[in-house]
Amino acid sequence: MKLNDVRDKLERLSADRSLRQSVAIVEAFITSRQKETVVGQPPVLFFNASSRIHRLSINSAISLIASWKIRLEGIPAKYIVCERGMQQCILGTNRWDYLSPPPCDHCMKFSDLLFPQADSIALTLDHAIVRKVAAEVGILSLQELSEWEFQDVPVGELCLPGLRWALRRFHLIEDKGTIFLFRQYLASAASLVERFGKLFDELQPRALVVFNGLMYPEAIARHMAQLKDISVFTHEVGLRPFSAFFSAEHATFRTFDLAHDFQMGFEQQEQLDRYLYDRYDGRSEMAGIQFWPEMSSLSEELKQAMEAYSQTVAIFTNVIFDTSQVHANTIYSDMFAWLEDIKAQILEHPETMFIVRAHPDEDRPGKESQESVADWIRASKLEEWDNVIFLRPSDSTSSYQLIERSKFIMVYNSSIGLEASIMGVPVLCAGRARYTQLPIVFFPRDRAAYAAKFEELLQEEAINHPREFVENARHFLYYELFRSSLDLSEFLEPYPRAKGMVRLRKFDPQRLLNSQALAVISQGILEGESFFYPN
Question: Is the pLDDT of residue 63 over 90?
Answer without folding.
Answer: yes
